[in-house]
Amino acid sequence: MISITSAELNYLVFRYLHESGFTHSAFAFGYEAGINKSTIDGLQTNADMDDDFSFLQPLDLITKDPYELQRIIKAKKENLQKDRLEENGKHNEDTQVNELEHTQEREEKKGREKEQEPGKETIEKDREHEKGKEKEKAHQDHIINGEKCEDKFVMEYEENGTLGPEPMDISTNTMSLPCDISSHDVTILEGHTSEVFTCAWSPSGLLLASGSGDSSARIWTIADGPGSSSSQNGPLNVVVLKHFRGRTNEKSKDVTTLDWNGDGTLLATGSYDGQARIWSGDGELRNTLNKHKGPIFSLKWNKKGDYLLSGSVDKTAIVWDIKTGEWKQAFEFHSGPTLDVDWRNNVSFATCSTDGLINVCKVGENRPIKTFLGHQGEVNAIKWDPTGSLLASCSDDYTAKIWSLKQDKYLHDLKEHIKEIYTIRWSPTGPGTNNPNQQLLLASASFDSTIKLWDVELGRLICSLNGHRDPVYSVAFSPNGEYLASGSMDKCMHIWSVKEGKIVKTYSGNGGIFEVCWNKEGDKVAACFANNVVCVLDFRM
Prior knowledge:
Elements: H1 6-19, H2 23-33, H3 49-54, H4 58-63, H5 66-87, H6 93-109, H7 111-116, H8 120-127, H9 135-145, E1 154-159, E2 162-163, E3 168-169, H10 172-175, E4 186-189, E5 196-201, E6 207-212, E7 216-221, E8 238-242, E9 255-260, E10 266-271, E11 275-280, E12 285-290, E13 296-301, E14 307-312, E15 317-321, E16 326-331, E17 338-343, E18 348-353, E19 358-362, E20 370-372, E21 379-384, E22 390-395, E23 400-404, E24 412-414, E25 421-426, E26 441-446, E27 450-455, E28 460-466, E29 472-477, E30 483-488, E31 492-497, E32 502-508, E33 513-518, E34 524-529, E35 534-538
Antiparallel strand pairs: 1-2, 1-3, 1-28, 4-35, 5-6, 6-7, 7-8, 9-10, 10-11, 11-12, 13-14, 14-15, 15-16, 17-18, 18-19, 19-20, 21-22, 22-23, 23-24, 25-26, 26-27, 27-28, 29-30, 30-31, 31-32, 33-34, 34-35
């Protein structure tokens, strides 16, 4: 019987993956298995492989293909060599060459140390700005929590269907900019006793609504101007909207969704108990809407404000007549839970479900006026564009799609994410908006930790925003369309420049972020966290 060592087996698996075309898997497996250190006779390895890996972040191995990794390594090597030559610019040419060779030899001896400490050159530069912290711990914290704007934030461009310029590392000059939002610009709203799942600004003023797993919603009155402190612990103008009658909170009444009507006079909340509730701006319960037989996951007012639309786990969507407080029509066309609903105009809307279907319905019609088939997994979210002519959808099948009522098949199939897409948002730009001269964009946020911006006319990726380290649950465009806020399970909220594709502000909290939203003026961003708080960030550029 022939026996083989574990090293030989690893090498066989590596070669199999590589020769079968799975270059990404082979690259990652080779790194983990230490193929480059193998002592197998006849195995030719790259003597510089240890150094190559030291230029990469752990997440790079998962999210980028080998060709991108090679570009990153090449660019960083060139930058490193350039920096060294500049440092030794006062020496003669021979001294420069000798010093470079000596440095390379010294790095080869420390290959093992470099493998344990990826991106050491970046750490040395960061240490000037992070005095008093242990270098290794600071670097690990930054990788895990994404607390600083380092050169790990890269932007990938697509042009003509192929990779364009190499991934762009933020320069050391950018790293020194005040990217973190100051604590003086943060107001922390405390009071909820469980995760805060959803939040929304009133369109009429400085009222912020939040919904939580503690069976309550709250309406906060936010002071105008910058936050004066990092926390509001004193008497705060807040109204508590209790969704339970007993003395103790009932978990079955988690507030899962909420939405203000167009003039900001009424707030609708949807709960895990299957009931929708209508509240006044000062917190008075106006009506309880009871027909669903399962949790409500989505709730939307039409623009006119006379109908409220709800989608439930019970597979239905219901249109409610606000004047009478009764249900107008129930739509039972899905075979699985209804996950999202969105109005197209005052009388027609779309619904999506775990059954993979998207239905376009109209009040008064007994059947869908259109059914879109094409997703191969649960459809998590749907959104009409500002004119109501295009419908965007995203799914567990890793794709987003754009549909038109003029045809049955999707207009564009957007396939760049590598994990489930949780949510999508249209930019408030283009025809029918307050920013008609700007390009209409679609943003998609995924469990692959990236946000992608799409050209919806061509169905092409414009750029990938890579700054988060965990699933991204929420994105929101600023009212002028120039910025995009994103919230992730990595506890960070980033604000991106849409034009430049880079982070301009970042805030790190103490819990995962479920939702982010801008106020109508575009100078405040709210974020709701898994550690029971809502943060309001003052945004100025």
